[in-house]
Write a structure and sequence with these properties.
- The protein is an alpha+beta fold and 173 residues long.
- It has 6 helices and 8 strands, in the order ββαααβββαβαββα.
- It has a single domain, classed as Aminopeptidase, CATH 3.40.630.30.
- Helices cover 32% and strands 29% of the residues.
- The strands form 2 sheets. A 5-stranded antiparallel beta sheet has the order 1-2-3-4-5, with helices on both faces. The chain has a 3-stranded antiparallel beta sheet with strand order 6-8-7.
- Helix 1 crosses helix 3 and helix 4 packs across helix 5.
- The radius of gyration is 15 Å and the shape is globular.
- 34% of the residues are buried.
Length: 173
């Protein structure tokens, strides 16, 4: 990884992932109810998958994937590699962590990058993810078919977009 990132929120710290995070990542992604909603994550998720992911991050943009650290420890990952992507361990759902983490990352992203928009998406049926994206100001932008490695199937990916102008207007910038 070319640079260490650290973003603080009221309850969370977003930071660059390290090899020490692999056991927690493996434990959290070994839950099909988490991995089924992701495109590139296999199920079951093994230690070797975690090492492969961290190998990839060594040459990736530092914002591609950040650990979400709460009082309980690592609770998920958020990043903006190719669009906003994220996941939380199931025990950490419903606490507002993802909205808080994604809001902080998007704010950092728009304040440090010369981009006009940020894309994201969610699989049909993932109402929790759609709810997070709505809260952040994303709007529908079509749909496409995507492969879910965990499900071993093609799924419908609802594409969404957030413009810099919309973010600024909705966040007092």
């Amino acid at each position: 990884m070319e640079q260490e990132i650290r973003i603080e929120t009221q309850r969370l710290t977003l930071r660059s992932l390290t090899r020490d995070d692999i056991p927690a990542i493996v434990q959290l992604l070994s839950d099909f109810e988490v991995s089924r909603w992701l495109t590139v994550v296999p199920f079951p998720y093994a230690k070797a998958d975690g090492h492969e992911f961290l190998d990839y991050l060594e040459t990736a943009d530092p914002l591609d994937a950040l650990a979400i650290i709460a009082a309980e420890g690592l609770v998920g990952v958020v990043g903006v590699g190719g669009g906003l992507g994220y996941w939380l361990g199931r025990a950490h759902h419903g606490k507002g962590y993802m909205s808080e983490a994604a809001r902080a990352l998007i704010d950092h992203y728009f304040s440090t990058r010369d981009v006009d928009a940020l894309s994201s998406g969610y699989f049909t049926g993932n109402a929790a993810s759609w709810n997070v994206l709505c809260k952040l100001g994303f709007r529908p932008d079509g749909e496409e078919t995507a492969k879910s490695r965990a499900q071993g199937a093609e799924v419908t990916l609802k594409k969404v977009i957030l413009t810099r102008a919309s973010w600024a207007a909705n966040n007092g910038r």
